[in-house]
Automatic annotation (TrEMBL):
Family: Belongs to the NAD(P)-dependent epimerase/dehydratase family. Dihydroflavonol-4-reductase subfamily.
Originating species: Aureimonas jatrophae
InterPro entries: Epimerase_deHydtase (IPR001509), NAD(P)-bd_dom_sf (IPR036291), NAD(P)_dehydrat-like (IPR050425)
SUPFAM superfamilies: NAD(P)-binding Rossmann-fold domains (SSF51735)
Keyword Oxidoreductase (UniProt): yes
An example Gene Ontology molecular-function term: oxidoreductase activity, acting on the CH-OH group of donors, NAD or NADP as acceptor
Domain (NAD-dependent epimerase/dehydratase): residue spans on this chain: 5-242
Protein name: Dihydroflavonol-4-reductase
Length: 337
């Protein structure tokens, strides 16, 4: 068994940082991509940061197809499964994203088991941790908490992440496969090229003062570099098996994120976003059902326990302000696509 690592979804925002960290350390990476152009994106990132692109071996895989997974995991010591659907707009069906997220995760785990890989680290989310619980601002959510998919106040994305992670844990228990998950909050931090993900686009619009209104919503914010490091350190750590690592640098309101983004892009013209009254959001939820998920989050703080991240993996998370500032600066450096 070599030290080669399979990284699925290698052209994604988080995955590019993981690939960069691994290759920078001299680790050979086999990365799944959807197309040759996506493989070129990853190679370009490696060259830009002075790393050897020959250490990156792309392989085309589809979350919805069986073909290629066994070949992808062959001769790999570890599998880091980051690939998962994250649409810019949520679909209408509550379980619409489940098949791709769950079945893709199980394909990665089955391939890892058949290849004799030592461990799989799955990129999950805090969306699989804290949805569907009664409002209680004193509560701190930790690795033992699991989102309640039966709740009306849970998005299709959160349902997909919860179901996929629960399926991964069931597979791990049944087959004795060593597993860890990384559960980041809303992920910001520097982009490595001009290809922006859904979360990064939100900050881009804030920095350019293109969002006129924001509800009073608070989110945990994770820096993508900390998320990547959590994957890399959880991969070989003997005590990381059967653990969930929540990654967050702290909770911030959307309006404070917007203020940080505007400060990092002082040349932008426009106004600070105005608050949307919480009562208006709740009233709208009675007429527009998808707003129920947003209404559940207004005027609410969900605190996160990052003790395993700090004490076991030795990671002190960067602050949300650093994550937002560095994202805006990277957007200005690389432009937008």
């Amino acid at each position: 068994m070599t030290d080669r690592v399979l990284v699925t979804g290698a052209s994604g925002f988080i995955a590019k940082h993981i690939v960069l960290q691994l290759v920078r350390d001299g680790v050979a990476v086999r990365g799944s991509v959807r197309s040759a152009s996506k493989a070129d994106e990853v190679r370009a990132v490696l060259r830009r940061h002075g790393c050897d692109p020959e250490l990156f071996e792309p392989i085309e895989l589809d979350l919805a197809q069986e073909a290629g997974w066994q070949i992808a995991a062959r001769d790999c010591r570890y599998v880091l499964h980051t690939a998962s659907p994250f649409p810019g707009r949520q679909p209408r069906g509550k379980f619409a994203l489940v098949p791709a997220a769950r079945d893709g995760t199980l394909r990665a785990l089955k391939a890892a088991r058949e290849a004799g890989c030592e461990r799989v680290v799955v990129t999950s989310s805090v969306a699989a941790v804290f949805y569907g619980y009664p409002r209680d601002d004193a509560r701190v959510f930790g690795e033992q908490d699991v989102s309640r998919i039966e709740s009306d106040a849970i998005s299709p994305y959160a349902v997909s992440k919860t179901v996929a992670e629960e399926a991964a844990w069931a597979f791990s228990r049944e087959h004795g496969l060593s597993l860890a998950t990384v559960n980041p909050a809303l992920v910001f931090g520097p982009a490595l090229d001009s290809v922006l993900g859904t979360s990064a686009m939100l900050v881009d619009w804030m920095a350019r003062r293109r969002i006129p209104f924001l509800p009073d919503v608070t989110f945990g914010i994770a820096d993508v570099r900390d998320v990547a490091t959590a994957h890399v350190r959880a991969m070989p750590h003997p005590e990381a098996a059967r653990r969930r690592f929540i990654v967050s640098g702290g909770e911030r309101t959307l309006r404070s994120v917007a203020a940080t983004a505007r400060a990092a892009n002082p040349g932008a013209l426009g106004f600070a976003p105005l608050p949307i009254p919480s009562g208006l959001v709740r009233a709208g939820a009675r007429v527009v059902p998808p707003l129920a998920m947003l209404a559940e989050e207004v005027d609410r703080i969900k605190s996160l326990d990052t003790t395993p991240l700090r004490e076991l993996l030795g990671i002190t998370p960067r602050s949300p302000e650093v994550a937002v500032q560095d994202l805006v600066e990277s957007i200005m450096q690389y432009g937008r696509s």
